[in-house]
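Colleagues,

For the teaching module next term, I've prepared a clean inverse folding example: a structure given as tokens, and then the sequence designed for it. I'd like students to try predicting residues themselves before seeing the answer, so please don't circulate the second half yet.
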């Protein structure tokens, strides 16, 4: 089972890129972020023609999250986090997909820091940590996937000294990410590629893509119930180089089929 996350940075404007990538890689489930489209403008028909069912929560101009599935049906379990500090913002959607509980998220950027946007980021992160703890306690096979807007470590950013004051790299944010992992979640990409330089985002400015001046901010976290099934993880970085592509690249994991119990 291949599960991917992709911040499309405007689903209608990037639809040809999204469809091309789906055709090329055929993931089984995809979490999308930054739809930047109201609920009634989501391209459901085009995705259906490509073989994907969709659950989505749109928002005019900003944010927006969706779950796509190929083959199996997604059974929606949640929209928004419990006690979300701003329920009007579309940032979390969750569904059961082929025996896996998949939570797609778009964590707030938080800039400028300090300020109300940074405070909102920390508050939203706290709600995510609380909800993630309930999934761990339930022992369910779960994946949290999306644009976390968190650079976990110095090695996850080109020239980290330039990001010390940014909300993506703030000590409070990195500590929150570590608190989340401490519940038992596995950062799939870093776990399987512990020594590699890995980026998932390259800004449109200053030729960041051409210079490979990137960040790793898109993550897939696997619960303990799925850790033994994790067999692969990667970044489809070449997609960032396509014409009119998002500034993010798709990130994916592969899960082995569940083991059969012995008599």
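(Answer key — instructors only)
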């Amino acid at each position: 089972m291949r599960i991917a996350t992709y911040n499309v940075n405007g689903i209608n404007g990037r639809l040809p890129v999204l469809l091309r990538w789906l055709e090329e890689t055929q993931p089984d489930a995809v979490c999308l972020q930054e739809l930047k489209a109201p609920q009634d403008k989501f391209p459901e028909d085009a995705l259906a023609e490509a073989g994907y069912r969709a659950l989505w929560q749109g928002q005019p101009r900003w944010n927006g999250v969706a779950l796509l599935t190929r083959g199996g049906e997604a059974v929606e379990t949640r929209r928004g986090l419990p006690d979300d500090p701003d329920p009007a913002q579309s940032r979390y959607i969750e569904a059961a997909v082929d025996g896996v509980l998949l939570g797609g998220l778009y964590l707030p950027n938080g800039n400028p820091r300090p300020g109300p946007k940074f405070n909102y980021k920390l508050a939203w992160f706290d709600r995510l940590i609380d909800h993630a703890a309930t999934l761990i306690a339930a022992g369910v096979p779960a994946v949290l996937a999306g644009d976390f807007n968190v650079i976990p470590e110095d090695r996850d950013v080109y020239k980290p000294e330039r990001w010390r004051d940014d909300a993506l790299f703030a000590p409070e944010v990195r500590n929150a990410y570590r608190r989340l992992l401490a519940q038992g979640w596995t950062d799939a990409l870093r776990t399987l590629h512990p020594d590699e330089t890995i980026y998932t985002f390259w800004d449109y400015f200053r030729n960041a893509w051409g210079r490979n001046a990137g960040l790793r901010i898109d993550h897939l976290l696997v619960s303990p119930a799925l850790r033994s099934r994790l067999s692969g993880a990667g970044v489809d970085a070449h997609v960032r180089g396509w014409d009119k592509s998002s500034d993010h690249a798709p990130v994916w994991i592969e899960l082995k089929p569940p083991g059969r119990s012995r008599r």
